[in-house]
Amino acid sequence: MKMKKIAVLTGAGISAESGISTFRDANGLWENHDIYEVASPEGWRKNPELVLKFYNQRRKQLKTVKPNAAHYYLKELEKKYKVTIITQNVDDLHERAGSSEVIHLHGELTKVRSEKDELLVYNCEDDIHLGDKAEDGAQLRPHIVWFGELVPMLDKAIEVVENSDILLIIGTSLLVYPAASLVYYLKESHPVYLIDPNEQIDLPDIPNLTVIQKSATQGVKELPL
Length: 225
Fold this sequence. Notes:
By secondary structure, this protein is α/β, with parallel strands linked by helices. It has helices at 12-16, 35-38, 41-46, 48-62, 69-76, 93-97, 154-162, 216-219; strands at 5-10, 29-30, 33-34, 82-87, 102-104, 107-114, 121-123, 140-144, 166-170, 192-195, 209-212.
């Protein structure tokens, strides 16, 4: 019997339960920094040293946290389903929990790349400083998709959703684009489960949508899978 395919779209809410600060809070700051100072090409051109320092700190923080029950639940789903995780998160908690198929829409904290050639990507566990170069001689920058930059993995994510039987959305609202648009690529007859503790206001009209208004670790226990 052919395994059913599940696409899982995850956001900041699943990592928050492991102790990682959400990307954007109510005052538009990320770890007390204006988001555009540390997550835009303009911020990089203006003060690359600040940007490198910021992501060095995020990388250090990542080493102090662990995957939570929701991450491990998604790994366990692989025993019964073909699971592909599409995450907006830049951490590696899905990988550390053992998930085998993870697409990072917004880049990866544990990687850096040439600022000139986005295909020159390197694994990175430690700090990066001004003067650290890629093999093409260009400065290394975080392998993060910043505001105003294209989302290179979006087409692959769309293909995964189009070919899935079930879509799970965990820890993210359906209001953040382009990730939120992925729901429209699922066949209308297929079920969508949204796990998010926040009250859902102005949700788009989505066929077969079930909302579980709980945190990621609590909500996964109520999935009928």
